[in-house]
Design brief:
Length: 245
C-alpha cells in the first residue's frame, strides 16, 4: 500500500510541476497540503454516483443547494434532467471513486441590448458533509470559472441563502457582487475574458484529473483482483482441509 501511495504522490508532484509550467496555478490555487485537487468532468455513466451523492445530503444541505426542501423524488428528477451536452458538471472523487463533491455550471443565452447576445452561466455546488472545509467548494468554483472564461460567458450567477456563509465567502473571494434580498442573496461575477493561457491551463487541468482518475481506477481494480485471488486461495485451502478429514 505504501508503494502505491508513494507512486501516486510522486506522480501528483510531477503533474503539479507540469501544470505550474503550463500556467495552471494562476487559476487553481493548491490547498493547504500543496496538493492540486483533481476535478473531473462527470459523464452520463456517473449518473448513479451523482444521485448517490445528492441523496446523501441532509435536509438542510438540500435546502441550501436547491433553494427549496428537495425530497428524494425532486433529486432523482434533477439528476434525470442533467444536460451533459450543454452544461459542465464536475466532480471530486475519493480513492474508492465515490463522489465527494460536485458542481453544476449551466449556460443560458441572454439578450443584451438590441442585437448582441450574451452567455450567462449559473453555478451550483455541494460537498459531502465529511469533506467540508478542505477547499473543495472553492476549487470547484475556480474550475467552473476557468471554463466560463474559455467559453466566453459574460457572468456567473450564484443563488445562495443569506445564511450560507461558506458559499458567499467563495463568491466574495472571487470578486462577485453580492445583492441581498432578505433570506436570499444573489452573487454575480463578471467573467474576465479567456486567453490562450487559460485554454492551455484548462487542457492540462483536465489531463491531470483524467490521469488521477485512471490511477485510482487501476488501484481499485488491482485491490479487487487481489481480494478475488485471496478468496480463491481460501476456498482451495478449505476444500483441501475438508478432503483430508
Ligand atoms: C457551500 C459548500 C459547497 C462549501 O464547501 P466547502 O468545500 O466546505 O467550502 P471551502 O472549504 O471551499 O470553504 C470556502 C470558504 O468558506 C469558509 N467556511 C467553511 N465553512 C464555513 C462555515 N461554516 N462558516 C463560515 N465560513 C466557512 C472557509 O474557511 C473558506 O474560506 P477561506 O477561503 O477564507 O478559508 C458546502 O458547505 C455545501 O456543500 N453546502 C451545502 C450545499 C450548498 O450550500 N451549496 C451552495 C449553494 S449552490
Amino acid at each position: 500500500m505504501k508503494l502505491v501511495q508513494t507512486l501516486i504522490q510522486s506522480l501528483a508532484v510531477k503533474s503539479r510541476k507540469l501544470l505550474r509550467f503550463a500556467g495552471v496555478p494562476i487559476d487553481l490555487v493548491p490547498n493547504e497540503h500543496d496538493v492540486l485537487v483533481p476535478i473531473c468532468h462527470l459523464r452520463p455513466y456517473n449518473l448513479p454516483d451523482i444521485q448517490k451523492h445528492l441523496l446523501s445530503l441532509n435536509a438542510k444541505d438540500r435546502y441550501l443547494r436547491f433553494g427549496y426542501a428537495a425530497n428524494d423524488e425532486h433529486i432523482k428528477s434533477y439528476v434525470r434532467s442533467l444536460n451533459f451536452e450543454r452544461d459542465e458538471i464536475y466532480g471530486i472523487f475519493n480513492r474508492d471513486l465515490q463522489i465527494l463533491a460536485m458542481a453544476h455550471l449551466t449556460f443560458n443565452i441572454q439578450a443584451s441590448g438590441t442585437t448582441t447576445q450574451q452567455m450567462a452561466a449559473e453555478f451550483g455546488v455541494s460537498v459531502h458533509s465529511s469533506s467540508r472545509g478542505r477547499g473543495y467548494g472553492y476549487h470547484l468554483f475556480q474550475r467552473a470559472l476557468m471554463h466560463a472564461r474559455n467559453a466566453n460567458a459574460a457572468t456567473i450567477l450564484i443563488h445562495a441563502l443569506s445564511e450560507n456563509a461558506p458559499m458567499l465567502k467563495i463568491a466574495r473571494k472571487a470578486g462577485a457582487t453580492l445583492e441581498r434580498d432578505g433570506a436570499e442573496t444573489q452573487a454575480l461575477l463578471k467573467v474576465p475574458r479567456g486567453s490562450l493561457r487559460t485554454r492551455i491551463a484548462e487542457l492540462f487541468t483536465d489531463q491531470y484529473a483524467q490521469t488521477n482518475y485512471s490511477i485510482k481506477e487501476d488501484v481499485k481494480n488491482f485491490w479487487y483482483f487481489l481480494t478475488q485471488v485471496q478468496e480463491i486461495r481460501e476456498g482451495v485451502r478449505a476444500g483441501r482441509h475438508q478432503s483430508a478429514e
